[in-house]
Amino acid sequence: MPTAIETVTTSAHATRDVGAALSGALRPGDVVLLVGELGAGKTTFVQGMAAGLGVAEAVTSPTFVLVRPYRCAPPGSARNPTALRTLLHADLYRLERTGELADLALGEMVEDEAAAVIEWGEVAGPVLGRGALTVRLTADDDLGEQERRVGIEIPEDRQADAEALQSAVAALDDVGRRRS
Amino acid sequence: MLVLALESATELSAVAVADRSGVLAVSAPERGRRHGESMAPAIESVCAAAGVTLRQLDALVVDVGPGLFTGLRVGVSTAKALGFALDIAVVEVGSLELLALGAARTWAAGAGVEPPLLVPVVDARRGQVFSARFGPARPRGPEHIERVDQDRLFDPEELAGELTALVEEGCACLCLGDGAVRYRELLAGAGAEIAPGELHDPDVAVLAGTGLARAEAAGGRPAAEVTARYLRPADVRINWEQRLAARPARGS
Ligand SMILES: Nc1ncnc2c1ncn2[C@@H]1O[C@H](COP(=O)(O)OP(=O)(O)OP(=O)(O)O)[C@@H](O)[C@H]1O
Ligand SMILES: [Mg+2]
To answer: CA B77, B79, B80, B85 torsion: positive or negative?
Structure first.
């Protein structure tokens, strides 16, 4: 059973914080699948991940290209505690056929000290094989306008990373508390 | 008959020129996934070393996978481009059968013992492998092997499970390829034998020889029909309209 971390964020800023916390657990070769509707906060989450890796460039939705590489701060530095050099941001919303995924070669690109984060990642899941991390973002009727449910699934062989992430998320002060 | 063979389905890429007398020139194999940077100069240098020009080629031979997307893309598109430009046919050889063909060459010497079932295993990345099975050809054919199972994508544990069953039935299995190296312990644990080192890499000389024989026997395919075998889940249209219609409209 993969470990599931569930929380509710109360602002875009808080969703970024969770993204930054997750990025701290990433290793080269990782693939993060982002699942959520239009406007759920997928790109917002990626912005947080990029911040956690010391990416200087502003992360936006890739309009024409399907995959954008972002250079991280030097691995092991204060701004990037991980071993990653590159964060690959993919948005599959413009993909027409699952077969085109093969041409993106994301599974191979992450071998170069990189991790990939993929919006509309559920489309890519079966093509990318095993070991992916999944993040589900949902805006529900029982939540406020500024709230999102965030569920993170970590593969079972990453127990230590899951526990570290759990405490990092619990330590965020604008996360996990519901507005009543 | 003169052929140019292009190998780039795994991390090892190489090219060779061969005719009926054998291989005339082989490029130094390159390791890594940057096949795109080395293939064109490698073609130029093997042609020079063999003393031939591209215009003299009668056919192209290419490893069409399954394997690395990045490598296959370069190998297959180079073969297609040359096929179009020179107006010659392209012979497709699969990466798994190529590994089996390399191992089966030693059978020709006829050691007398019953050859094992050949199980090529290519690393598909992200925890998966491509595999197929080949037995000795009966009656003996020019290629020595006969396919007994199609190319498939496996979780390594799933492949190990199938091999365990085969070994229990008394069938000796020999695993070879970069996937056999990566999952050596798991596959050996299933009772399969792991091939010696030199059989794990696709051999461009075997590719050229096989392609030449196939070109002479059956010709090849027009460049337009040549495709890489990615062997991933079915290529389906993503119906975004339907996906989005199912979602409640958000007012933000
Ligand atoms: N708790 C929250 N978490 C994330 N975003 C929030 C939250 N509350 C409000 N928002 C707003 O929701 C919007 C989310 O937009 P974003 O581009 O991140 O979504 P997306 O899932 O990437 O959409 P798309 O499917 O169009 O790519 C932003 O305008 C953000 O400010
Ligand atoms: Mg987005």
So the answer is: positive
Question: What is the number of structural domains in chain B?
Answer: 2
Domain span at residue B121? 96-199
Ligand minimally distant from the alpha carbon of residue A89 = 2
Residue, of A5 and A126, whose pLDDT is higher: A5
- Does residue B22 share a domain with residue B144? no
Q: How many C-beta atoms surround the C-beta of residue B108 within 10 A?
A: 10
Chain A residues closer than 8 Å to B235 by CB? 97-99
**A103 close to B (CB below 8 A):** yes
Residue A39, pLDDT above cutoff 90: yes
* Beta-strand relationship, A86-91 and A114-119: parallel
pLDDT computed for residue B111 by the predictor: 56
**pLDDT higher than threshold 60 for residue A179:** no
Query: pLDDT over 90 for what percent of chain B?
Result: 74
Q: What is the pTM of this model?
A: 0.87
